[in-house]
Amino acid sequence: YLVTTDVRILNSAFLTIEEGVTVEFEADAGLRVQSDDAALIANGTANNPITFTGVQEEPGFWMGLIFDSDNAENKIVHSVVEYAGSTSGQYFEDPAAIAVHSGDQLILQNTTVRQSGNTGLFTSNNVSLPDFSQNTFTENEVPVSIPAILMGALDSETAFTGNTNDQILVREQTI
């Protein structure tokens, strides 16, 4: 599939991406789940991952996947998210391949986030990562930027190596 603009999932819509599908994004295009009763369900398999990529293999080429939804169905499993994190028209204070807004949630499992122009995963305060496991963050500027309270959500089997800065950026917050 080819996405040429900023797509928004709204009003009780559930977008399910089947295993093995590749979704390519034009420059500065992105995908936003923007309603609490809407969700993105990207459920690939180990043998047939889902790929979210840019039309051009250039870090920061497209906007990224943005979650402004607290729907428990939001998930990215056995997927690859690459070449996202555009700074043009950014939605969050920190451009990222995957961004989760305050009060919202995302299941992220067995997913590789690479070649982001900036941050691999950015979360605001009060985010829930109910099942964050066995992911790989590589070839990003910063692999993950999260508030201090979410440190316990990160598992020991996720890899944060091969980035410009192999450090998790923990932002100030009262715990």
Record keyword descriptors for this entry.
globular; 0% helix; 175 residues; mainly beta
Could you characterize the architecture of this molecule?
The chain is an all-beta fold and 175 residues long. The chain is built from no helices and 18 strands. The protein has strands at residues 2-3, 6-9, 14-17, 22-25, 30-33, 39-43, 50-54, 64-67, 75-77, 79-82, 96-100, 107-109, 112-114, 119-123, 132-133, 136-138, 142-147, 168-171. The strands form three sheets. It has a seven-stranded parallel β-sheet with strand order 2-5-8-11-14-17-18, with no helix packed on it. Strands 1-4-7-10-13-16 form a six-stranded parallel β-sheet, with no helix packed on it. A five-stranded parallel β-sheet has the order 3-6-9-12-15, with no helix packed on it. The radius of gyration is 14 Å and the shape is globular. The protein starts with a strand and ends with a strand. The relative contact order is 0.14. The model has no long low-confidence stretch (mean pLDDT 93).
